[in-house]
Amino acid sequence: MRDTEIMTADATQWLCRDRMLDLGRVHVMGILNVTPDSFSDGGLHFDPQTAVARARTMAAEGATIIDIGGESTRPDAESVSADAELRRVLPVIVQLRNDDLILSIDTSKASVARAAIEAGAHIVNDVTALGGDPQMAATVAESGAGVVLMHMQGTPRTMQVNPTYGDVVTDITAFFENRRARAWQAGIADAQIVFDPGIGFGKTAEHNLILLRRLGEFQKLGRPILVGPSRKSFIGKVLGLNVEDRLEGTAAAVAAAVLAGASIVRVHDVRAMCRVARLSEAIRRSVPVHQEGRCAAADFSATGS
Ligand code: HH2
After folding, report:
1. Contact yes or no for 93/103 (Cβ under 8 A)
2. CA separation, residue 100 to residues 54, 56, 62, 103, 132 (Å)
3. Which domains does the chain have, with CATH numbers?
4. Nearest protein Cα to ligand 1, atom 1
5. Among residues 19, 203, 231, 232, which one is catalytic?
């Protein structure tokens, strides 16, 4: 692909294999952690049937994308082998693949991403932004999957040890440019890419607040922005609340993100955050959009149509 073609990708569209997701409207990505130890919902959806039921509930509540993860990224989480990760996520993907949903695999392992895509996933959500597994970029390029390039300073184990930046937005923008160039070199099209500043990944509470306030500055990259503030510790720090009491704080963060131009919000509490996202989007556009039904129009038009 020539650079000019790469550069002209429409920032309101996200190419995810054979699907073209319309990001002219805000989408809600529901979190499905098929793990025993995730920071806020560990163990709740560890059984595949419970996980599938949870995904369908989130879809009914307005999620158009389900992000399925088999390994927690919290700092003290046990690392999980690729085989174990696949045993957790594959049965869920297989059961959901014929549902009217976009499926995302939350993994940094290329072998897990590849198997998940073969089973029906459309998106690779890589918290290492192609910097973890050397095979990941080729896996995304070959499959044509959508990819979330998320910023993290350090690794999950080290990321909260004194994170420092010059200017957090400038530094993360430079990181995105760098990883985008790596993606292009591997043959990934710009249309496949979404950027995520990685709330909570190697950031102080203040960094996270600045990122939410200045999120609009990432729009100059010309690609959609995804944000995942759901129930995270900066909310607990500001409000002095434990993880089970962060619904309203998450709502404020989601509203701020959507008003600042986020195209996708990654959340646990789908029903509530769909309402928050819908109203925030209506304010942003000053039109009463999406009055009923799913949060964003499930516009899964086939590529090229
Ligand atoms: N946050 C988490 C995991 N994956 N992916 C993206 N793109 N953005 C995020 O902000 C993000 C992410 C952490 O949240 P959660 O999945 O609820 O917890 P855990 O990693 O403990 O499973």
Report:
1. yes
2. 15, 10, 12, 10, 31
3. 3-285 (3.20.20.20)
4. 228
5. 232
Q: How far is CA 267 from the centre of its chain?
A: 9
**DSSP track, 38-87:** -TTTTTTT-SHHHHHHHHHHHHHHT-SEEEEESS--STTPPP--HHHHHH
Bridge-based pairing of strands 193-196 and 19-22 is unpaired
Query: Do 216 and 226 touch, CB atoms closer than 8 A?
Result: no
**Amino acid letter for position 136:** M
Which residues line the pocket of ligand 1, CB cutoff 6 A?
31, 33, 35, 38-40, 69, 72-74, 106, 125, 127, 148, 150, 196, 198-199, 226, 228, 266
Q: Which residues have a Cβ under 8 Å from the Cβ of 166 and sit 6 or more positions away?
A: none
Catalytic-labelled residue, pool 180, 266, 278, 294: 266
pLDDT along the chain (305 residues), means of 10: 54 95 95 93 91 98 97 88 97 97 98 98 98 98 98 86 92 98 98 98 97 97 98 98 98 98 98 97 84 47 41
- C-alpha 58/C-alpha 52 separation (Å) is 10
Pairing of strands 27-33, 19-22: unpaired
Distance CA 136, CA 76 (A): 24
**Is this prediction's pTM over 0.85?**
yes
- Residue 304: partners with Cβ closer than 8 Å, 6 or more residues away: none
